[in-house]
Write a structure and sequence with these properties.
Keywords: Decarboxylase, Flavoprotein, FMN, Ligase, Lyase, Magnesium, Metal-binding, Multifunctional enzyme. It catalyses: N-[(R)-4-phosphopantothenoyl]-L-cysteine + H(+) = (R)-4'-phosphopantetheine + CO2; (R)-4'-phosphopantothenate + L-cysteine + CTP = N-[(R)-4-phosphopantothenoyl]-L-cysteine + CMP + diphosphate + H(+). Pathway: Cofactor biosynthesis; coenzyme A biosynthesis. This protein has 2 domains: 11-191, Rossmann fold (3-Layer(aba) Sandwich), CATH 3.40.50; 201-296 and 312-409, Rossmann fold, CATH 3.40.50.10300. Helix 3 (89-96) packs across helix 5, helix 4 packs across helix 7 (150-161) and helix 9 (226-237) packs across helix 13. An 8-stranded mixed sheet has the order 13-12-9-14-17-18-19-20, sandwiched between helices. It is α/β, with parallel strands linked by helices. It contains 13 helices and 20 strands. The termini are far apart. 31% of the residues lie in helices and 23% in strands.
């Protein structure tokens, strides 16, 4: 009986690209050291894969005392390198690698890398990568006292000066905890982001605002600020000098971005107009403040014993209508959210808003959908320009949408 051979793809690889294609075609070598933070390594690997990467794990002997290689083989869908053999794994892996990351990186391994010592699978692969000019990232994890040891600090600085990217740990409770998975993956995405905005200044508004009725209750929108924060992250990674005017949100802004925090729409307006005393090349108005605010704010807390309460709402300050007066030479990109309308009507309303406010581009989406928009990690938008050219960006991660918006603004993507 003839037995046919089939190429079997590991089931774990089914998640590749399910979140974004930002790392599509990239091969990442994930080196794991003997820190208790090694328990985070499967999560890091899986998130890299969800963003499109093919991940290969390398483990030191001490790392195998924390987690088993079988776990990393399951996580990545690839065999795990734990020692070097006649297959010269350090050469084979680095020949196809786009990036090497050490996460977690212990004080011991950091110091060995800094001094060119190659006595583990991890250190020899990093040394090989450096010799081949392959980008290297490290994410330290150790006790705080170790991280602040002057010799360890000196070695970390030495790695930075050599071009290695260090994703700084989070100092908490006497520990230098490994950076969050989102920060680590974000650093990798940033490394592969084209530097298309080098030398440009960008201003972004993001998030909701809170229009207070009293000191406790307020009117707001469901905006999380994720779209504007994704724009800030993408612009910064592309080389821009970014200022982010951010309303109240639980989402942390990216590092390396100047952040101006505001609460109300009036505060956001004042902040934007003050910032526009400087010149910005591109302005993204992605904030989603309420259209109305209270005519007056009560001090303290309005009693819950009241049976009835009448309040008067007035129009909120219209930031979008004021910006062109103060930034005549800037590229201004507005955002328009609609609820439950057809694509044609969405584009038509967005284009009218563009004309009314003398914008260069406007980005429109339908917030009636639960799989995109407010609070979601995904969006689907229509980008409209002054000539009414329309570019449709299908459902994608907000970081991918941000990249496509920037490409459209720079003339790298064209609508029809």
């Amino acid at each position: 009986m003839e037995i046919k051979q089939h190429l079997v793809v590991h089931p774990s690889k089914a998640i590749i690209g399910t979140k974004s294609k930002l790392l599509k075609g990239k091969t990442v070598v994930l080196c794991i050291c003997g820190s208790v933070a090694a328990v985070k390594s499967p999560e890091i690997a899986r998130e890299l894969m969800r963003n499109g990467a093919d991940v290969h794990a390398v483990m030191s002997r001490e790392a195998m005392r924390i987690i088993h290689p079988h776990l990393m083989e399951w996580a990545t869908g690839n065999p795990v390198v734990t020692r070097l053999t006649g297959k010269v794994e350090h050469i084979a892996l680095c020949e196809g690698a786009d990036l090497v990351i050490v996460a977690p990186a212990t004080a011991n391994t950091i110091s060995k890398i800094a001094h060119g010592i190659c006595d583990t699978a991890v250190t020899i692969i990093v040394s090989t990568a450096l010799g081949r000019k392959i980008p290297v990232i490290i994410a330290p994890a150790m006790h705080e006292s170790l991280y602040k040891n002057p010799f360890v600090s000196e070695n970390v600085e030495k790695l930075k000066k050599s071009g290695i990217v260090v994703v700084e740990p989070e100092i908490e409770g006497g520990r230098a905890k490994i950076a969050s998975t989102s920060r680590i993956v974000g650093a990798i995405i940033n490394l592969f982001t084209p530097r298309s905005l080098e030398g440009r200044k960008v201003l972004i508004t993001a998030g909701p605002t809170r229009e207070h009725m009293d000191d406790v209750k307020f009117l707001s929108t469901p905006s999380s600020g994720k779209m504007g924060i994704a724009l800030a992250e993408e612009c910064a990674a592309a080389g821009a000098d970014v200022t982010l005017v951010l309303g109240p949100t639980f989402i942390s802004p990216p590092q390396g971005v100047r952040v101006v925090n505001v609460i109300s729409c009036e505060e956001m307006m004042r902040a934007v107009l003050s910032l526009l005393e400087e010149r910005y090349d591109i302005i993204f108005l992605s904030a989603a403040p309420p259209d109305f605010t209270f005519s007056e704010r009560q001090r303290g807390k309005i009693s819950s014993d009241l049976e009835e309460l009448n309040v008067r709402l007035v129009k909120s300050p219209r930031i979008i209508s004021e910006v062109r007066k103060h930034a005549p030479d800037s590229i201004i990109v507005g955002f328009k959210a609609e609820f439950g309308v057809s694509a044609e009507e969405l584009v038509e309303r967005a284009y009218r808003r563009l004309l009314e406010n003398d914008l260069d581009f406007i980005v429109a989406n339908d917030v009636s959908r639960t799989d995109i928009g407010f609070c979601s990690d995904f969006n689907e938008v229509y980008i409209v320009d002054r000539r009414r050219n329309v570019l449709h960006i299908p459902r994608s991660s907000k970081r991918e949408v941000a990249r496509e918006i920037i490409r459209a603004v720079l003339g790298e993507r064209h609508g029809s």
